[in-house]
Specification:
alpha/beta; Rossmann fold; UDP-galactose 4-epimerase, domain 1; 2 domains; seven-stranded parallel sheet; three-stranded mixed sheet; binds guanosine-5'-diphosphate; NAD(P)-bd_dom_sf
Length: 322
């Protein structure tokens, strides 16, 4: 793996999200000049050391002129409507942000490369949701792309476009990210919803936890590890797609049990209520990734296991409720 060169410049979309914030911090600490896109309609995110540029990711013109102006060495496309559940309410916006915007960015990155004669490395934050209900588990880079929700379909389009541009000699990679969590995860995701509510129950501020499908199994990793995989993929000698996952699956029920126990509550079952409103029209029963390629070619491996992910998130929420 080649390391970062002095004077490198990176461009990040999605800086206000969980992964964008970790990535921005990581690159700034490495001495990379970091630029990021901040949406016109949102308050400026706090991103120390990052130069923020106002713009709309879905505007091809905005994206192209900004990229030509900045001429970055590395582009990380992390911006997305990130909720699978919400993608059913806004399928068209999901298509534009999660799908079409990636195409515009790829085209702009190629333009920078061709006009300025310097190589651009492009990383797309792809998703396990592109596999839909896969026939086998774990999945790897050869698993058929067959999404089953608007989020997955839009991510699948972006994923395929990365391959299209790789054939045009852009160092473009898709990091097929499995669920990755941290205290920065918003509460619309089940992990953070669980840890925030468990902390509130422990502090006497909530009485119960309402959830949907407790049997769904996910491969939950630690977000900063996944950011590390994306940086390694950007700087690898050869552009490939990589599954980024721990390879270990747990059910939502297991996450709930681990979170309550970590907060010192053993008799948790009476505190959990099943609410059909949180059950999705289609929901993959098991998404577990095989990251052998990332391990072998990028030297990447997860550093935080399931119990520790749960423990760190519960601890952060317990200290937040005081
Ligand atoms: P996703 O895998 O990217 O959709 O991440 P989520 O954290 O939103 O959902 C993970 C799994 O938890 C899915 O199978 C959901 O159906 C399941 N789940 C069960 N109850 C809930 C809930 O109350 N909220 C959310 N977000 N997911 C839930």
């Amino acid at each position: 793996m080649s390391s970062v060169t002095t004077g490198a410049r990176a461009f990040i979309t999605g800086i206000s999200g969980q992964d964008g914030s970790y990535l921005g911090e990581r690159l700034v600490a490495e001495g990379v000049e970091v630029h990021a896109l901040a949406h016109d309609l949102e308050p400026l995110p706090s991103a120390p050391g990052v130069e923020l540029h106002r713009g709309d990711l879905t505007s091809v013109e905005d994206v192209r002129s900004l990229l030509l102006d900045l001429a970055p060495d590395e582009v990380y496309n992390l911006a997305a409507l990130s909720s699978v559940a919400r993608s059913w309410d806004e399928p068209d916006l999901t298509a534009r942000v999660n799908g079409l915007a990636a195409a515009a960015l790829l085209e702009s990155a190629l333009l920078v490369q061709e006009k300025q004669g310097k190589p651009v490395r492009f990383v797309q934050a792809s998703s396990a949701e592109i596999f839909g209900q896969p026939e086998r588990s774990p999945q790897d880079e050869t698993t058929p792309v067959r999404p089953l929700n608007p989020y997955g379909a839009a991510k699948a389009y972006a994923h395929l476009m990365v391959d299209v541009y790789r054939h045009r000699d852009l160092h473009a990679v898709s990091a097929i990210l499995y669920n990755h969590e941290s205290p920065r995860r918003p509460e619309q995701f089940v992990t953070r919803k669980i840890t925030a509510t468990v902390a509130a129950i422990a502090a006497g501020r909530a009485t119960h936890l309402s959830l949907g499908n407790l049997d769904a199994r996910r491969d939950w990793g630690w977000a900063p590890d996944y950011v590390d995989a994306m940086v390694r993929a950007a700087r690898a000698d050869v552009a490939r797609d990589y599954v980024v996952a721990t390879g270990v699956g747990h059910s939502v029920r297991e996450f709930v049990a681990a979170a309550f126990r970590h907060a010192g509550i053993d008799d948790w079952e009476p505190l959990v209520v099943i609410d059909p409103a949180f059950v999705r029209p289609t929901d993959p029963t098991e998404l577990i990734g095989d990251a052998t390629r990332a391990r072998e070619l990028l030297g990447w491996s997860p550093t935080v296991d399931f119990a520790d992910v749960v423990g760190r998130m519960v601890d952060a929420d317990l200290s937040a409720v005081g």
